[in-house]
Amino acid sequence: MPLKISLLTKIMTSFIDLLTTLSITLCGPGCCGCCSALRPRYKRLVDNIFPASPQDGLVKSNMEKLTFYSLSSPEKLDRIGEYLFQKASRDIYRRRHGFVIIAMEAMDQLLVACHSQTLNLFVESFLKMVQKLLESTDPQLQILATQSFVRFANIEEDTPSYHRRYDFFVSKFSAMCHSNHSDKDTREKIRLAGIQGLQGVIRKTVSDDLVENIWEAQHMDKIVPSLLYNMQTAEKYETVSCMETDTRDGMEDDPPRLAEACLRELVGRASFGHIRSVLRPVLTHFDRHELWVPNDFAVHTFKIIMFSIQAQYSYSVVESLLRHLDAGAGTRVRAARAAVLSNIVAFAAGDSVGPSVLEIINNLLTNLRASVARDSEKESDEKLYQDALINALGEFADHLPDFQKIDIMMFIVSKIPNQRGKATKADFRLQSILLKSLLKVGTTYKTTELSKAFPAAFLDALLRLSSAGEAGTRALLQRILHTLLDRRGNAPALAVPTVDYAELGLIVEKCSRPDLIFISKHGYAIFSSLYDGLQLESNTTENISAIYTTLALLCVELASEETVCDMLQLILSIQQSALSNPVLSVSQQCALHAVALALAALVPHVLVLPRLADYVAQIIEARREEAPHLLPPLLEDYDLSPSKMPNKLPYLMIDQMALGECLKANGVEARLQPAAPYAGSALAHRHSWVEAGAAQGRDSLADISAGPNTELDSANSSPGVQRHAGAGGESVSLEALRRAAGGPSDAERREAERRRATLNDTFRTAPFDHLLAITQPKYEIKEKLEEIFNSLSEEPLLGAGIGGSPAGKPTPCAKYFPELFLY
Predict the structure, then answer these.
(1) Cβ contact 587:544 at 8 Å
(2) 483 near 443, Cβ under 8 Å?
């Protein structure tokens, strides 16, 4: 009997299920209710939420009953969702869109109300329904489905889903972003819905590693171009920082603004391994649609990326753009890309440390060298490209700490070619471009101590470049020195030589001890380099003015009694070179005289030396009356008569003995030494200015004084050369013989000991170049032998013997007293 009852129960259940199936097929909204008693409760509850007419909307009281039933029986959620999906699918097919909207609204309310572990089963039905609405051609349903998906995206699920995929939604929402509907308002609504959908996909996927990887190229190639397509339709581009962004979640009613917010969110959620997945489609989009020129939109887009990206990853954006600079594009496009780079590179500087800094700098320099190697002088945009790279270099360095700026400058200097003898035109151009880069970085550096601004290796490299082959390159190097030397803003006032410093308003401070140590150690090399730079035949007025500015800045920055003698010694040497250097033109000689006097007038201005100021003022007045061409300003050409040549006006020159007396009168120990021979002896080779004087120790920048009795060469050993008693020499007299017989006095012994100690200290501590210069012979052996042989073969022009001498042979009187005879 129990078996028969069980069998009867199964038969009745099957019959009820059959009737239920039939009721699903035959019954719908407005059904007579004849089969309602046989339907499951959840289906009756679902049917009851639909009104007789769709215009009446969702039946709220019945919706509350359905919600309560779902919360009390969560295992029924999947069946409820499936049933709602079937009803909505049937209504879509029958174009009863009012009931479809009601079904979607019910889905949304159930989704928001029900938070349980079984929500995943309901979500599958929900997403199927959203997809069904998106596949329709009605814009209203597409927008409705998008809004539902966005609400779903904002819900944090308790359990992850391993099998859920969003590739359809990415494709559909991206297609909606490119809508070309004929009606403008509808088109904007569809695009806005597409952007909102993409934003929902991003929020739903990037935070869950168990779902589909949204960072794959197949998805990023759809999402990123869709956002950029809408952003570029904006009438104007206003880039604000991420702190100023309107953060209303999907409530923007403007597609460009919403697309920008979505891009910010996408970039902000990207990790280090995913940021390049976003940048690649960005660069590709700009290439395909030719958006680099003009580059307003490109600058706007990359600024958004730099504002939104995590700070520690910002340098990867710069690296990606650097690698893309030369990617199959013309010069104008490269220049536009470089301009974009210069606008964003500053954002990466603050968080770049260590190798990433030098890597970015190296990439910039590599692109500069590649630009020079292309040898594209005919393309005017190539210079724009190079200038943009240099600006990018300067912007990047401007946001780095000072110690890194010095490292960058040393790195740039190491890349500069220095091949004077066999340098090509490309080498000179590269040299000039890299020096411009160095100048750009130097302008961002704030010098505190000269020893920190000029490390030994960096200073040596700069001084080697001071004798570059091209005049423009040398002028550029002097501008770099001006930038690093000028700590008080005096460089603009000292841009051109002048003798009137009272109106310039120079800021002068006492030289610090570290700077004195620096100039004591490196002053010889610096002054020698600048002196040699003034002796080049290819110098222009710009070169001479630039070197004057450098020397004037050194005088102002190192103003002290310890350095005044070295500066005056250099001034005397410059004046002497203007008189004796045979390779200089008349214009260059006049310019050097003007520079020497301008520097001489600057020395008593920065130091309180009244006697020296009066002496220089007298020379200035005398030159204004008789030789204004020996005063500033410098001219390119001087039309002078022979009587106005500089070597014909010795009484208007700066006198070394007068300078010494002025210094002593003001209480400064004078250590000036005679310069090279005055007026007119043609030099066999150019001596360094330090060979003219004698050093009084390591703090002096002149040559070593050998003393009155220790000349390295002897004039008596050379025929035809008469030895004159110098200022420190002693004439052979009875008193001198007595002193020689009695031995040196105590003072002489102390002086000899001092000179010996000075000589020993110099050879221990002086630079090698200095030692090489002071130990070179004063003449070449070959030249001296020719001079000896010429003196032996000289014969008087008159053939007849004078004073009983045979014809053709000079008499002893003519041989030993030639000044008494007329030839």
Answers:
(1) no
(2) yes
Q: Which of 478, 475, 505 is nearest to 489 (CA)?
A: 505
Q: How many Cβ atoms from other residues are within 10 Å of residue 464's Cβ?
A: 15
d(CA 239, CA 301): 8
d(CA 304, CA 314): 12
C-alpha radius of gyration, the chain, whole number: 46
588, 570 contact by CB (below 8 A): no
Distance CA 645, CA 654 (A): 16
What's the rounded Cα separation, in Å, for the pair 244 and 219? 29
Whole-model pTM? 0.67
CB-based contacts of 546, cutoff 8 Å, min separation 6: 474, 475, 478, 479, 482
Q: Are 202 and 261 in contact (CB under 8 A)?
A: no
Coil, helix or strand for 704?
Answer: strand
Report how far residue 309's alpha carbon sits from residue 303's, in angstroms, rounded to the nearest whole number: 10
List, run by run, the mean pLDDT of 10-residue segments along the chain (823 residues).
53 55 45 50 77 77 80 77 82 80 82 67 81 88 89 74 78 92 90 92 74 80 93 72 46 81 91 88 92 89 90 85 83 88 80 69 86 68 84 84 86 78 71 88 89 90 82 90 91 90 86 89 90 90 93 90 87 90 88 92 89 91 88 82 74 86 81 47 33 35 35 37 40 59 71 80 76 69 71 48 47 58 51
CB atoms < 10 A from the CB of 502, how many?
A: 7
Domain boundaries, the chain: 2-39, 347-449+457-485
Query: Identity (one letter) of the amino acid at 581?
Result: N
Assigned token pair, 306: 């730099």
Structure tokens at 712: 């390295």
Place of tokens 């004929």: 182
